[in-house]
Amino acid sequence: MLNRLENLPTHKRGRIVKVDGGNGALSNFESLGLEIGDEVEVTGKFPHNGAIPLRKENEDLSIGKGLASKIIIDTDEEIIISLDKAKVGDQLKVVKVKSDGEIRRRLLDMGLVKDAELEIVRSAPLGDPIEVMLNGFNLSLRLKEAEGIFVKFVDLNQEANRNGWYK
Amino acid sequence: MNTDKEILVALAGNPNSGKTSIFNSLVGANQKVGNFSGVTVEKYSGKKEYNGYTITFVDLPGTYSLTAYSPEEVVARNFIIEEKPDLIVNVVDSTNLERNLFLTTQLMDLECKMIVALNMSDEIERKNISIDTNQLNRLLGAPTVQTSAAKKTGIDELLDKIIKIKKGELETNTHKLFYSDNLEEQIEKIKQTIDSSKHLNGKYNARWLSIKLLENDKIVYNLMRENPVWIKINPILSEAITRFENKFDSEPEMLLTEERYSLIRGAIKETVTYPPKKKKSKTEFVDSILINRITGLPIFLFFMWSIFQLTFTLGDYPMGLIEDLFAFLGDSAAALISNPTAQSIVVDGIIAGVGGVLVFLPNILILFLCLSIMEGTGYMARAAFVVDKIMHKFGLHGKSFIPMITGFGCSVPAFMATRTLKSESDRITTMLIIPFMSCSAKFPVYVLITGAFFATKTAGNVLFGIYIFGVGIALLSAKLFKKTIFDDESEPFVMELPPYRVPTLKTLIMQMWFKAALYLRKAGTIILFASVLIWISTNYPANEEVAQQYDNQIAEVQSNNQLSDEAKEEQIAVIENNKLKSKLEYSAAGYIGKFVEPFFAPLGFDWRLSISLINGFAAKEIVVSTMATIYALGDADESSSALRASLSNDPSYTVATALALMIFVLLYIPCFAATVVFHKESGKWKWTLLYGTYSVVIAWVMAFIVYNISSLFL
Fold this sequence. Notes:
The complex is a heterodimer of chains A (167) and B (714).
Chain A: E1 2-4, E2 13-19, H1 23-31, E3 39-42, E4 52-56, E5 59-63, H2 65-68, E6 71-74, E7 80-82, E8 91-97, H3 101-109, E9 117-123, E10 130-134, E11 137-141, H4 143-146, E12 149-155, H5 160-163
Antiparallel strand pairs in A: 1-6, 2-3, 2-6, 3-4, 4-5, 7-12, 8-9, 8-12, 9-10, 10-11
Chain B: E1 6-13, H1 19-27, E2 31-35, E3 42-50, E4 53-59, H2 71-83, E5 87-93, H3 97-109, E6 114-119, H4 121-126, E7 130-131, H5 133-140, E8 144-146, H6 155-167, H7 181-195, H8 206-214, H9 218-225, H10 230-248, H11 252-271, E9 272-273, H12 282-290, H13 296-314, H14 316-336, H15 340-358, H16 361-377, H17 379-393, H18 401-407, H19 411-417, H20 424-433, H21 443-453, H22 456-483, E10 495-497, H23 505-539, H24 544-559, H25 565-586, H26 588-595, H27 597-600, H28 607-615, H29 622-630, H30 641-649, H31 655-667, H32 672-682, H33 685-713
Parallel strand pairs in B: 1-4, 1-5, 5-6, 6-8
Antiparallel strand pairs in B: 2-3, 3-4, 7-9
Helix pairs in contact in B: 3-11, 5-11, 7-8, 7-10, 13-16, 14-15, 15-23, 16-23, 18-19, 19-32, 20-22, 21-22, 21-30, 21-31, 22-31, 23-32, 24-25, 26-28, 28-29, 31-33, 32-33
C-alpha cells in the first residue's frame, strides 16, 4: 500500500517509490542522500520540531515534516492516522471514533461510524475547518474535532501536495 | 383533540430536508408561530381542512437525531412523547437517504405511527436515481410517499394516507427495529425490569427507555434515577456496559449507532439504484469558486457587505417614510388636541412610541430575507465554514459573524439574527458582545464630539479608532465569557454543508414575515410601553412655577412695543429654549442625571453629560438632542456649529473628556428597544442583568482609563 512517509508510525519500514513535489523538494531529498527505492525505517518522533528521524540501512538521518509528506512510500503496514492529519483528496475509512461527549454524539449521528468511507474535499481558506464527503453528503468539522477520528487509507491522493492549492 | 375528525400530525426531519417547504405546502398561510414551552425554539403549527378532517400540523425543529444534547432534539422528542401526536410525517431528503434515515430509525424506536415522505423526488428523477418504494415500505414498516415541495407533487397523496391511517385503513408501524442478539438481550432485560415497575406505566415506551439508557442518554438517565426501579436497573446496565467493553472494546452507544447505520446501508442497497457517478455535481462546482482558498474570503466579505448595505442603506428609505408618516400623524394629532398635556402624551408619547417600534421593521424584514436566502440556498453553512477559524479563536462560532456585522447597523435585528446559532452558549455570548459593535445610532454622537474637539484631519482616525476599539472589546469579552461562565463549551462544528438549492419564494416570504411578526408582538408592545415611560420621566414632575416665570418673560417680550417682530421672535426662541432646558432639569430624568453625577465624575462628566447619557438609554441619538436642550439650543443636531462651539468652549470639557465620552457611549448599555429584544431573545433575567451590568461596568472602566491616560498626555 502506498502512503506518505509522514504517516508511517515509529519502528515501521517502507520503500520510497517517489517524491511527490517540485524540484526544490527533489533536491532536498537528494541532498539528504536518499534515493528512490531506498528502504527506510522511522526510528522515533520529535513532536516539537516536527522532524522525523529515519534509518536508511545503518545510517541515521532526520528529515522535516514538509518533505516527509511529499515522499511516497510503499509499505505493508496498515497505517492508521487521525483524520486531521489526512490531506485533501485522500480516501479513508473510519476505524474508530475516540471523541467524547457531544462531539462524539454529533459525529456518530452524522454517520462517522466504523467502516464509513470518506474523502477529504478541502480545507477552509484559513486552513481550518475541513470539509469531508461521506455517504454522499458534505460535512465540515474542525481539525480539533477530527483529531478524535481514526482512519485508515483506502486510497492516497498523491497529487494533493502538488496541485492541492486550488481545491 | 383526538376526536374522530381531528388529527394531530408532527413533521420531523433533518435540517435541509425540505421539511419546512412541505409544511408550507400543506397548510399554506394558515399557520402561526410561537415558542415551544420553556425554550427559544420556534414552533410553527398550522391547520388544514381535508375531506372533512381537521389536520393540525406541527413543524418540529429540524434535527439529525433525537439525543439529549441540543434543545431542538429534546423539544422534538418531548413533543412526540408528551403530546402523543396521532401520526408523524418523517420528511427525508431522497438524495441523501443514508443520513436522513438515521433519524427514521430513532423514530422507529419510539414506536409511533409514521409516514415517511421521500422528499425532493424531482431531484431524484433528474439525477436518475430510482427508489423501490414498496420494498422500502416493507423494510421500514411504514408507508412512504414521494413528495416534492418544489413541484408540489405528492402532497395530496400524503394527506390521503394520513386520513387512511387515522381510519385504520392503512397499516403503519408494522414492526420494530431489531438490533443484534447481544444488544437485544440487554434491551430485553432492562425492558422487563421497567415493565415490572408500576411507576412508569403508560407514559413512556419501555423499550425506548431501555435503548436510551444503553445509549447513555442524560435525560432518560436522570428520569430513571429518580425512580425506585433504578436500584434494579443500575446493576444490569453496568454489567451490560462492562460486557460490551470486554467483548467488543466498544460501548453500547457506539454499537447501536453502528447497527443503525448498517441497517440503513442494507436497506438502501436493496431499494435504491444509483446511476454511474457523474464527473462533478453542480454543488461541487459552485463550491470550488465560493469557498476555495483564494476567492473564499473575498466573496464571503462581499456577501456580508451586501447584506449590510441592503439592510441599512436600502432600509433607510422605508425608515424615512415611516418617520415622516409618524411625524405627519403627530402633527395632525397635535392640531386636533388642544390640551397641552394630552397633546404631548399622544404626540410625543404614544405616536412617537409606535413609530419607534415600526421604524425597525424595514431593517428586520430585509435582514431576515437575506438570512433566509442564505439559509435556504445553503450558503450560510459555507459562510460559517470560511470564518470559523477566526471566530473560534475567540470562543465563538463561525455563524456568530453575521449577527456581529449586523450589530454595526442596529442591535435589534442583530440580536434576532443570533437565532441561527444553535447552542445556547454560542448564542448568549454573541448576544452579549453585539452591543460593542458600534451601532449606527451612536454615529451622530461621535460626529458631534469629534467635530467639536478634533481637527478635521484627525477626526476620521479617531472615529475609526473608536470602531476598532469596540470590536476589540467585543472579541476579548467573548473570550472572557467563554472562559468563565460557559466553561469553554462550544457547539461542535460538525455541520452539514448542504447541496445548493433554490429556495421557494413562499418559504422565504413566510420566514421573513414570521420573524417580523414575532418582533412586533413580543418586543413591540414593551418598547411602546417604555417609550411612554421615558416620555413621562423627561416631562414630569413639571415645575409649574419655573414654567410660569418663562411664560411671563415671553409675555413681557410680546407686549414690548419697542421691539420689532423679528427681535421679538428671536428673544422668545431663546426663552423657549431656556424653558425646555429647565423643564428637563426639573424632570425625573434630570434628577436622576444629577443624582448619578458622582458616578460619572471620575470620568470627567458633569451633570449635563450625565443627563444626556441617561436619556441615551431611550435611544442613542437622543444623547445629541439632550445636549442641545441642555445648552438651550433647541433642535440642534450633531452638525450644528452652535452646539459644537458650546461644547468646545465649555471650560470643563477637554479632549480627554471627549474621548472618555465617546468610549462610554460606545460601550454602555444599548437603547431600551435593544434591551427589550435582548431579554426576549435570551429568555432569562440573569442574561439581561449580566448584559446591563457588564456593559455599564466595562464602559465605566474603559472610559476611566482613557480619561486618565489621555489627561496625562493631551
